[in-house]
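REVIEWER CHECKLIST
Item 1: Sequence provided? yes
Item 2: Single chain? yes
Item 3: Sequence as submitted:
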Amino acid sequence: MKKNTFLALLLLNGSVLLAQNNEAKTIKEIYNSSLTNSKCYSWLDYLSNSIGGRLSGSTNAEKAVQYTKSEMEKLGFDRVYLQEVMVPKWVRGTKETAFILDNKTKISVPICALGGSIATPKNGLTAEVIEVQSLKELTELGVDKIKGKIVFFNRPMDNSVIESFEAYSGAVDQRGAGAKEASKFGAVGTIIRSMNLRLDDFPHTGNQSYGDIPMSQYIPTAAISTNGAELLSKSLKKNPKLTFYFKQSCEQFDDVLSYNVIGEIKGSEHPENIMVVGGHLDSWDLADGSHDDGAGVVQSMEVANIFKNLGYKPKNTIRVVLFMNEENGLRGGKKYEELAQANKENHIFAFESDSGGFTPRGFSLDCDEANFNKITSYKNLFKPYLIHSFEKGHSGSDIGPLTSKTIVKAGLHPDSQRYFDYHHAANDTFDAVNKRELELGAATMASLIYLIDQNGIVK
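Item 4: Structure as written out by the authors:
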């Protein structure tokens, strides 16, 4: 090897080592800042306990918009603004009631209306029940066995699947399309087993869609707790002719005006390149929505707070985006992309936290192979913080619609084993979130954003 070539390689290796040492030092400062000087837990406290559930179109959702805008203005962004978006307004109404009626026995079971459902008749709905395990089974049973009955979808999330989101994906179709499909066979209502891996008495709501069937064919649909589902299934085996009663008074109104909340830090070198970090500000109405997705909202805001505390000036423009209406329409994410296209914006990176405020384990990456390899090369920098999972997969629903010529998308991947104990249920409250786990997640997000900002993406 020629002497000049050897010296060049030596200098190159030295500069790479120096850069890695500097990056490791900055990441340590990021974690220190988040664990000792963060605001995310107090923000979540206010969002959860002083505002509460933030269903799109509600008064609480509007309060959350104003609160987070005010807090972001205090952080010293170059610009904080609201982005208008029309959202659906669905109101649950009075608390739902349900009973298993078996001969002379009347057993109360916990239910809750699914998002977008119509109400039952004023005095409730009573009918015989037919239990099914899948949408396919409806077709096999046909109109003769389904017409005039309540269809009970009772396929549980698969406890043998280690990745809980995979188990969720394997069962959630019955919630999303159960009412629409059962209606086609003459069902008068549907009851859906809650999307939950454990047995408890909390019914889990969530969005459902009637698709393109006419409104005259809409039928009421509700989730039943996993304990309630077990009881109903056992009761049906003993008495297939038992009846089920449920009553709900939900109502769908015209769309209303709401907002995405956006805070922007202009890039010092490449302001035309935009990096998004965000979560969704709306939640379901049964609880505070602390894990889903209050945690993601305050972690995204904390990224900006960390950079402010460290005096870090990003090379690229960073936007904290708090999306509205992820839960029942995804209008916020779609509007953001629509305006990004209209303004010819160039997004190079988007990061979403929407899997709860649990201990961070890594990242789910939606990108090409070159960028995946580049990001996985940062593994050693994350090893001291027990971040080890770098996998290709879904990044986030709100950033899903976002497109640019070249864009890398990432989702924070926390330990998800307890997530579906709380997801869309009345126990998704502030006391279910651990302060340290929440702060570790924010630091993990800020660290990856810092590395992408420093090193760019492969174009």
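Item 5: Key structural point noted by reviewer: Residues 115 and 207 are 4 Å apart (CA to CA).
Item 6: Recommendation: ____
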